[in-house]
């Protein structure tokens, strides 16, 4: 069973930065998709950024130019670098990954990001 563990969330002032990490229990080369999603109180979960295998990263319009998704294969980890944070970025951030062999999607437990104004 795939395990994804997010970390790096916290409280930051508007304009600040955070880097979220998603550590996988197996090689991230096992996945044909990895992405970051977020869910704010009272709202649906939404895509923030993702990395389909062999394709360029995708970003939500609201984070383009501020967030960057990247991975370090040797560490089995995908990251989300978040700069110029805004209060509307406040949410629980989740990592997702689809196994190449089965297509099954796994989710992490989430990490809280709070941006104060």
Set out the fold topology.
Elements: E1 4-7, E2 10-13, E3 18-24, E4 31-39, E5 46-52, E6 58-59, E7 67-72, E8 77-82, E9 91-99, E10 105-107, E11 111-116
Parallel strand pairs: 2-11
Antiparallel strand pairs: 1-3, 3-8, 4-5, 4-9, 5-6, 7-8, 9-10, 9-11
Summed up:
With 117 residues, the chain is mainly β. It has strands at 4-7, 10-13, 18-24, 31-39, 46-52, 58-59, 67-72, 77-82, 91-99, 105-107, 111-116.
Secondary structure tally: strands: 11
User: What percent of residues adopt helix (DSSP H or I)?
Assistant: under 10%
Flag low-confidence runs.
none
User: How far apart, in Å, are the first and last alpha carbons?
Assistant: 40 Å
- Mean pLDDT comes to 97
Radius of gyration: 14 Å
The profile of the biggest β sheet is: 7 strands, mixed
What global shape is seen? globular
Question: Structural class, judged by helices and strands?
Answer: mainly beta
SSE sequence, one letter per element: EEEEEEEEEEE
Total helical elements:
0
What amount of the residues lies in strands?
over 45%
Keywords summarizing the entry:
mainly beta; 117 residues; globular
Provide structural commentary.
- With 117 residues, the chain is mainly β.
- 0% of the residues lie in helices and 54% in strands.
- β7 (67-72) and β8 (77-82) form a beta hairpin.
């Amino acid at each position: 069973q795939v395990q994804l563990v997010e970390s790096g969330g916290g409280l930051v002032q508007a304009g600040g930065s955070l880097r979220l990490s998603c550590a996988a229990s197996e090689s991230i080369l096992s996945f044909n998709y990895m992405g970051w999603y977020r869910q704010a109180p009272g709202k649906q979960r939404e895509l923030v950024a993702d990395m389909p295998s062999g394709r360029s990263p995708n970003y939500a319009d609201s984070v383009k130019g501020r967030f960057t998704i990247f991975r370090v294969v040797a560490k089995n980890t995908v990251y989300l670098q978040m700069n110029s944070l805004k209060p509307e970025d406040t949410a629980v951030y989740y990592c997702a990954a689809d196994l190449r062999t089965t297509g099954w999607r796994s989710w992490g437990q989430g990490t809280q990001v709070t941006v104060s104004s």
